[in-house]
Amino acid sequence: MIVTNADIKELVAEIPEGHGHLRTTIIFQDGREMTFQEATIANIVRAYITVKTHPRIRRVVLKGAALNDRKEGYAEWQLVEE
Questions:
Q1: Which whole number is the average pLDDT over 49-78?
Q2: Count of other CB atoms within 10 angstroms of residue 21
Q3: How buried is residue 58: exposed, middle or buried, by Cβ count under 10 Å (0-12/13-18/19+)?
Q4: Number of domains forming the structure of the chain
Q5: What percent of the chain has pLDDT over 90?
């Protein structure tokens, strides 16, 4: 699936009431919605910036992995560089 700007009716980035983290919702022209948690968007942004700004890196692959040894406050499931 390739999503273009023309496919998107609205994009909402907000910290919902009672929550501490950002949620980003894409509302498509056909009414479907996709909501991303902050960590997911952060990983997309991290990969995008790496590929866009690095003089030699042309591709980044992040894979989901359960991490037992992680920083306090971080979720067990993380996207890590391959």
A1: 93
A2: 11
A3: exposed
A4: 1
A5: 89
Mention every residue, 6+ apart, whose C-beta is less than 8 A from residue 34: 25, 26, 28
DSSP 26-81: EEETTS-EEEEEHHHHHHHHHHHHHHHH-SS-----EEEEE-SS--TT--SEEEEE
* Domain carrying residue 42: 5-81
Closest to 7 in 3D by CA, of 43, 36, 33, 38: 33
**Average confidence (pLDDT) over 43-57:** 97
Q: Is the dihedral of CA 43, 46, 47, 49 positive or negative?
A: positive
> How large is the average pLDDT for residues 9-36?
97
Residue 60 tokens read as 């980044």
Residue 32 contacts residue 3 (beta carbons within 8 Å): no
**Mean pLDDT value across residues 37-56:** 97
